[in-house]
Amino acid sequence: MVLRIFGMSIGVTVISLIVAFLYGGPTALALAAILGVLEVSLSFDNAVINATVLERMNEFWQKIFLTIGVVIAVFGMRLVFPLAIVWITAGLHPVKAFDLALNPPADDALVFPDGSPSYEKLLTDAHPQIAAFGGMFLLLLFLNFIFEEREITWLSWLEKPLAQLGKLDMLSVVVASAGLMLTAEFIATDEQRATVLIAGLLGMITYIVVDGLGSLFHTEEFEEGADGGPSQLVKAAGKAAFFLFLYLEVLDASFSFDGVIGAFAITSDPIIIALGLGLIGAMFVRSITVYLVRKGTLSEYVFLEHGAHWAIGALAIILFVSIGVHINDLFTGLVGVAFIGAAFITSIIKNRREDADEVDSEREPTPVG
């Protein structure tokens, strides 16, 4: 099963590295490999969240996400999206932006000799609105998860009180709005304030619309089991699955922001970025998502979903803070890995305790009479 799931990703990785070598020699090959590793490390929590949503979709829509969704993730977010950002923020035609990306200034300078900005500088200058939009979307995703009552809790001492507070209607929107205002007031510069507020508001609207449409068409119907009772949740199809698909794509975009921006610390070449982040990184993230769904890992390790959402909350805060303070991508990746790793370890401990309790109960003698 492992080879079947990861086989295509491995094949695409080999081809991508060969293309990178032919394109720019050993340096380009090394940069593409580094970017691939960066993307996987930054997006492992993305794969966990993707798996929780993908499990709710029927087989047809799962295939749509893993085919069309891959194309969108690879070429849309890792190649077209940065060009679109430069086009929108700087008013450059996409073809001109692409030419600018392929022909950077000498010595990795941020401006050309005539003073005009490079592609890297134009994209970096757009970071505040990108971070505000993505940060708000991810923050709402985290808050809606943490404010909901659940049978299973991970950090029970914190999650249970937060779930009680979550009974207040629209609390997640209130908290997210307060976070956006604090960011605009204390982190963004005076010139960035209006831009950050508008971008954050657009992120909030996007989340509410996409999540709301998904909930509108999602019906929690159950199939009838052999004993006449409910057996399993019916997989989403039709409009419900379409909006779940749309939700996943916006979610992937939000996760991709930090990776795309962070890639410029390594290279500004859009071809290498597309090969490393897109064809290598995004393909492996998709394979990890499929593996989690096929192996039932989320049901076996019950705290993984919790850990992923806490990682998302941390990433949202990091995006907001990064509007005014540079944050190393290595730190961002390690935070996500730390939450996922802690959730995985505690899930193993929980499973072992339950197995031990079950063995002990079987060994207890049956009372006579």
Commentary on this structure:
The chain is mainly alpha-helical. The protein contains 13 helices and 2 strands. The chain has helices at residues 2-54, 59-90, 94-102, 119-125, 127-146, 156-165, 171-186, 193-217, 238-263, 270-294, 297-300, 304-321, 329-363, and strands at residues 222-224, 230-233. The protein has a two-stranded antiparallel ribbon with strand order 1-2. Helix 1 packs across helix 10, helix 2 (59-90) crosses helix 3 and helix 12 packs antiparallel against helix 13 (329-363). It is globular and about 85 Å long. The N and C termini lie far apart (51 Å).
List the helices and strands and how they pair.
Blueprint: H1 2-54, H2 59-90, H3 94-102, H4 119-125, H5 127-146, H6 156-165, H7 171-186, H8 193-217, E1 222-224, E2 230-233, H9 238-263, H10 270-294, H11 297-300, H12 304-321, H13 329-363
Antiparallel strand pairs: 1-2
Helix pairs in contact: 1-9, 1-10, 1-12, 1-13, 2-3, 2-9, 2-10, 5-7, 5-8, 5-9, 5-12, 7-8, 8-9, 12-13
